[in-house]
Amino acid sequence: MSLLTVENLHTRYVSRGRTVTAVDGVSLTVAGGETVGLVGESGCGKSTLGKTILRLVDPAEGSIRIAGEEIATLRQAALAPFRRRMQMVFQDPYGSLNPRQTVATLLETPLKVHGIGGRAERRAQVLDMLARVGLPGDAAERYPHEFSGGQRQRIGIARALVLKPQLVICDEPVSALDLSIQAQILNLLVGLKRDLGLSYLFISHDLSVVRYFADRVMVMYLGRIVESADHVTLWRNPQHPYSRALLSAVPVADPTRARAPMTMRGELGSAPTTGCRFRSRCPVAIDRCSVEDPVLRDVGAQHRVACHRPG
Amino acid sequence: MSRDGTLDGAIDIAAPAAAVLRPAPRRRGGRLLRACVTNPGFLIGLLILMTVSGIALLAPWLFPGDPQDMVAAPTLWPGEDWAYPLGTDSLGRDVASGLAHGARVSLMVGLSATAIGLVIGTLVGASAGYFGGHVDNILSRLTEVFQTVPTFLLVIVIVAIVQPAASTIALAIGVASWPTVARLVRAQFRSLREADFVMAARSLSYSAPRIIVMEILPNALPPIIVTTSVMVANAILTEAGLSFLAMGDPNLVSWGSMIGDGRDLLRTDWFLTALPGAAIALTVLSLNLVGDGLNDILNPRSGLA
Question: Is residue B241 part of a domain?
């Protein structure tokens, strides 16, 4: 059984009477020990998907199951045991830590709230977690503003892991950091996954980060998964024109490999009411695309794509 | 690039562990000290406020006995008899003693009214801002209803219904002044509840009271503290106005009632109104100066932080 199973999930925002469907029928699974990458451009709904899975945003319809147990319809108060099993690392290490709390408070409060251990035991766990994320023990008595961005993200990771979750949703955990720091944090996440047996749902707009990190990659466009494959297949043989465009935008450090860049027209807009939502920007769209909405179908082993003209 | 271990050529994970943490920045005490130096208004306000508070605290020892007692000939001018340095009023009561004891009443009413207003306003504003939706709608309408009634009129109505004692006056002013706090706190909570650290707290299943009190409130405090000083000043003015209209506590001398009593002799013995008037003006001014200074100290964008 998968650790996380999401089926036909919808999330809608209502603003000034207009309904925006940020997540529009997404299904995915994350198995124990697996890292699933979720890529897409800004505004495609990938962060909303992560927050909906954690129930920080309420889903409009669909199912979210943790080890087979449905949590999409649970009341907030009943979610506590499931939140011990799934946590989130946030994008902005400056906004995600309460500036008025010491690191010790930041890390100990989750344990206190979930009734774990006595005072001494909690203290030991906090220090253990600080050591795991590569921070010295005397960091505990300091405030977030005394740390650099990379160190803050380590604190954010420590907070997400202090409850010993099985699944960690990483919402662009390195995109706010310098390139050299990004590598450190990614290596830390890889090491923690190995040591603690974690699963990751890794949300990013940066394909090179996802490639380094993920076993399986899903490409999201305007609230839908348009392609899903293991990372080798996706990089060698992307089927959806959107995936191809994204991959061709990744710079390759090899001047001998000439590549014809694939271009997309226009901007990320709102989904058209009929047909394929990518068709207005698609270089290979045909008449059928404006009539019939393509569904995800198998095109190979573990390779699914939602396009009438794949390949 | 290897997929199981580390990024080729990347820096070793352990490296930043040894990295030196930034030195601890100066604590608030240092900031306060620098603010005093760079902002003379704040320093002057603080000095006046401390003087007034000191006189208020020491009044029973500086001027033992009831300030309402007739102790000397009426309408002695200041300096005329050095036993009564600020003179006496039309009934022969010591003006200096009245001012000192009046400071007690003014500050006590000002502080307790503000405390009451803060508690009500923070509760209402925090709930409205954090929960939003129907809770926000109901509480915001309630706040608006209270705000449409002029504060002073509301206080007069409340005092007219209950007995005019210092405690009931403080309560009335507090009840009439909470909408300002509620609106401020609500705005703070509305913006802070979307902050990532609140999201993190929710994802960790912290309870709503814990998030409101432990996570959001400490971050919403600076503007509330600044407002507090202005609220104390307004409460002192309201109490003085009430006493001037002879609706204050009849058993206590207050600055407002001294002005009211001196009104009849304004043309001959103007010092009877001028002295308590100056006391009110100085105290209110000092509170406003302190409020401005606190705004600079607590505002991280002011460059002092």
Answer: yes
Predicted model pTM: 0.81
Instruction: Answer yes or no: is B30 within a domain.
Output: no
pLDDT in tens, B263-279: 888 888 888 888 888 99
CB-based contact A117:A125 (threshold 8 Å):
yes
Pick the closest to residue B156 from B236, B231, B241, B234 (CA basis): B241
Helix (H) or strand (E) holding B72: none
Considering only CB atoms, A96 lies closest to which of B5, B14, B196, namely: B196
Closest CA to A221 of A45, A47, A49: A45
Encode pLDDT of B86-112 as tens digits: 777 878 788 888 888 888 888 999 999
CB < 8 Å to A100, chain B: 218-219
ipTM computed for the complex: 0.87
Q: If DSSP codes are grouped into helix, strand and coil, which group holds residue A201? A: strand
Q: Is residue B204 part of a domain?
A: yes
Q: Which domain does B215 fall in, by range? A: 39-302
What's the pLDDT band for B8 if we cut at 50, 70, 90?
very low
Pair type for strands A303-305 and A297-300:
antiparallel
A218-234 burial, b at 16+ Cβ within 10 Å, e below that, comes to: bbbbbbbbbbbbebebb
Nearest neighbour of A99 by CB, restricted to B3, B19, B219: B219
B187 occurs within a structural domain:
yes
Nearest-neighbour CA in chain B from A195: distance (Å): 12
The radius of gyration of chain B from alpha carbons, rounded to an integer in Å, stands at: 26
Among B139, B77, B141, B121, CA closest to B220: B121
Among the partner residues A51, A95, A183, nearest to B10 by beta-carbon distance:
A183
- Please indicate whether, in this complex, the C-beta atoms of B17 and A150 are within 8 angstroms of each other: no
- What is the total count of domains within chain B? 1
CATH of the domain at B58: 1.10.3720.10
* Three-state DSSP state, B283: helix
Interface test with B, best of A48, A100, A174 (most B CBs within 10 A): A100
pLDDT surpasses 50 at B290: yes
- In terms of Cα–Cα distance, which of B102, B55, B97 is closest to B72? B97
Is A188 in CB contact (< 8 Å) with chain B?
Answer: yes
DSSP string, B175-230: HHHHHHHHHHHHHHHHHHTTSHHHHHHHHTT--HHHIIIIIIHHHHHHHHHHHHHH
A123-151: b (≥16 Cβ within 10 Å) or e? bebbbebbebbbbbeebbebbbebbbebb
